[in-house]
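Review form for a predicted model. The reviewer records the input and the model, then writes brief findings.
Reviewer: anonymous (R2)
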Amino acid sequence: MDPLAASGLRALLGRTAVFGRLRARELDALIEEMAWLWLPGGAPLYLHAEPSDNLYVLKSGSLGVFGQPEAGGPPRMLGVIPAGATLGELGLITGTVRAQSVRALRDSELLCLSRAGFEKLIARHPLAMLGAARVAVQRLLQGGRDDAIRPPRTFAILRFDAGSTAHAFATALQQELSAFGACTVIDAESGRGHDTDWFTACEAASRFVLYVDDGDATWRQLCRRQADALLLLVDAAQPATPWPYPIAETAYAGGTLRGTAAEAMHHRPRHLILCHPPGKFIYGAAHAWRTALDHGAWQHHHWRHGADVARIARLLAGHSTGLVLSGGGARGFAQIGVMQALREAGIVIDTVVGTSIGAIIGAGIAYEWDDGKLRAACRRALVDGKPLSDWTVPVVALTRGARTTLLLREAFGEIDIEDLPIRFACVSADLTLGTTAVHREGLLWRWLRASSAVPGMLPPLFHRRHVYVDGAVINNLPTDVLAEETHERVIAVDIGADDTLTAGVDESASPPLPTLWAQRHRHDLRPSVFSILVRAGMVNSETGSARRRELADLVLHPDMQQIGLFDWQQFDHAIEIGYRCTRAALRSRAASAQQEAQ
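Model under review:
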């Protein structure tokens, strides 16, 4: 081997946790046992459930770690493994099968150590086993989490046509990403004519690299080849049309094709950046463009001003904040106060997920309603509007649901979920499939109506032969919706009904109507039909709530025992409880952080 190349490999291996304790002589023996492997972008290194028979060191490029895809959807990328990292130690030592799939996000070089080579190395140099075991044990103690997995760090900013402002967006994004590490912008003028080593050196010197498309086909191809993720810039005011040139590789050369063609094509995250005209928001543009560009593979972002670019930067860099809001009837008003306190503390929310009343309040937050607007709109729709006042013969439910639907449409209009400036999802229970349904697209009011359809009180939402009811039936604290996204922190507000449902009488049948009428003011005797229905609808979801609380970095649990599920007139009191709870929790958290710093 060329002495210079051998020196570079020794330096690479010496920086890893697994082989960092080996001396030069031992590193040379290790290099002799390792095979060189090249993977083109999109090619799998290994797939879920395959035997763990090799340890890898990523020399250059980047790899994506993927979880199991949802039915019919693209693979879910959990994070990126950057150059210099090792992978496969845990499986090689424990003998377990691969827990995830790993694909090359772009052309990548790896060093591969087989199980036979590893065992040979152990016999000759036991310290290698010690280093590998240490890494494996650390990952086991972390629940199998790999600290080498990070958000993407190289991005290709691709423009739709000559009118797209790719350079302006790149400059704004560079400024925001620089808050999290050095960020370099490489365009055709500065990057054309350089070899692979030059680009590798640029990427090693910066936390983030932005490759900017200038319209030249050759340079665009290089940008795509170097990127961990693709950012496609479109004019929201223009009609949506298919992309004018190929975005993803349809195949890769060499080796044996494994996995599906869709996995090979969608191996990198894709972000659609919708550029809106100054002072104007183009409703419906997100849905139209996502449909034209195979919407299932895209995350979309709205770009109107600097705050939007800052949000995009936080999401790309893994420094964003997610907010999860639960259901709980009138107690949910506390979440308005929670949001007020978070804003006063300077905490910016980048993603919102909600269920039941938490979905309604969360939609207002994602719509960028300020504190006054959020309070006024919720009072109008949920208190003054009396959404449960259209009683009917209880064939499907006690109310018709027409008034609730009307009030939701008045509050939010006919916009799609995709039109919300802040990323939003709401949760309902799909009784047809018996699963949680996560709604990230479609008419906003429709899925808010589904998410808040308490069984027995409001009729289910029927849509395309499916039956949807209140999301709290299955999942009242949907932190798991954000669990596989790279948020820096997740704040969850749990206002679920912790109190038990009690009765002040022993009876197996209700007394005659005159007796019930005479006792109508004795609320301690029998819980109301509303309370019974809501409690019955939520009780199944409480089993998983403890696990879902663990997925949040901060869980706010306002004391709502004095407010009943249907105490709608306690609107202001509930908001105040949520506000005070959040302020106290943030003060306590700040004090703890200060003590740890000392």
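Findings: Residues 250-257 have pLDDT under 50 and may be disordered.
Further findings: The CA atoms of residues 209 and 531 lie 55 Å apart.
Recommendation: see findings above.
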